[in-house]
Write a structure and sequence with these properties.
This protein folds into 2 domains: 5-68; 89-285, Rossmann fold. The strands form 2 sheets. The chain has a 7-stranded mixed beta sheet with strand order 5-4-3-6-7-9-8, with helices on both faces. α2 (24-36) runs antiparallel to α4 (53-67). The radius of gyration is 21 Å and the shape is globular. The protein is an alpha/beta fold and 286 residues long. It has helices spanning 5-18, 24-36, 40-45, 53-67, 72-76, 99-117, 131-139, 152-164, 206-209, 225-233, 253-261; strands at residues 78-81, 84-87, 120-125, 143-149, 171-175, 186-191, 238-247, 265-272, 278-285. A hairpin with a 5-residue loop joins β8 and β9.
Length: 286
């Protein structure tokens, strides 16, 4: 006899708990609800419904994948970011809640600029799924944006996410290594670049090391390569009054500030994440 929704949920939670997964109850709930297409309420109201043999098979494979440390949202193939459903792919970083802080922070500057500038233009470097750029476009109806990445796979994913959220008319994907193939000028240049020092990547959780693309993590010997690359050329691509908004590693605030100040920028704002670590810096030309 087939399992019910409630049985399936309990079994997934039990196996995740035994395997030492960090938040077994949440992961079980997200996986079961996501694969069975149930809302959090339906997970309760339809808990006595039985799974078809196909559904049971899909659930069983998904649980095994999670036990192999594959993150829940990679198994589901998508994740919500700033209220937008985003498809994930092999060469895209899974967007994290901490990155929403970058969106919040930059948005305040864009809304101010919109009062005087009219149409806004945004550049998201290393766009991955398109998360940051698409979130900003969804909140700024008068803005257009460019998402750049070195990965063709990432750019395909970003384009499909723009279509999924009906933002394709205002979003352009460009293959570029930093500013090499970028044209035009921007009111905001944003990035969540690779910022982990090469020699510590292997110390990260297997959920990250086995499933996030190394190109989206590896920031070079000291984790600061991307910031040097952005600071070197950003001024040439900025509109008057424009800002640069960056996500940073928890211990990089002073280093990144020094890199940008050396190139003629001043730091307008520094913001901490939910764990009270330094996470976002905003710069303007001094």
């Amino acid at each position: 006899m087939s399992s019910t929704v409630a049985d399936t949920l309990a079994e997934a939670r039990r196996r995740f708990t035994e395997a030492g997964i960090a938040d077994p109850a949440t992961d079980a709930r997200l996986l079961v609800a996501g694969l069975l297409k149930l809302s959090p309420t339906e997970l309760l109201t339809r808990s006595a419904e039985r799974l078809s043999s196909e559904q049971a098979e899909v659930m069983s494979k998904a649980v095994e994948r999670r036990l192999g440390h594959e993150p829940v949202h990679r198994i589901l193939g998508e994740r919500e970011f700033y209220g937008l459903p985003l498809v994930l792919s092999v060469e895209t970083l899974e967007p994290r809640p901490d990155t929403e802080i970058l969106v919040d922070t930059v948005l305040a500057y864009l809304k101010d600029l919109a009062k005087t500038q009219g149409h806004l233009h945004i550049l998201d470097m290393g766009t991955g799924t398109g998360a940051i750029c698409l979130a900003l476009l969804s909140e700024c109806p008068d803005a257009s944006g460019v998402g750049s990445d070195i990965s063709a796979d990432a750019l395909r994913t970003a384009r499909s996410n723009a279509e999924k959220n009906e933002l394709q008319d205002r979003f352009q994907a460009v293959q570029s290594r930093w500013f090499e193939s970028i044209q035009g000028s921007f009111h905001a240049i944003v990035s969540n670049p690779p910022y982990i020092a090469s020699n510590v990547i292997h110390d990260l959780a297997p959920e990250v090391t086995k499933f996030d693309p190394v190109a989206a993590l590896d920031g070079g010997p000291d984790g600061l390569d991307a910031y040097h690359a952005i600071a070197k050329d950003a001024a040439r691509f900025m509109r008057p009054g424009g800002v640069v908004g960056l996500e940073i590693g928890y211990d990089q605030r002073n280093d990144v500030m020094a890199i940008f100040e050396a190139k003629g920028f001043k730091c307008l704002k520094s913001v901490k994440d939910y764990g009270q670590n330094d996470r976002v810096l905003v710069f303007a030309l001094a």
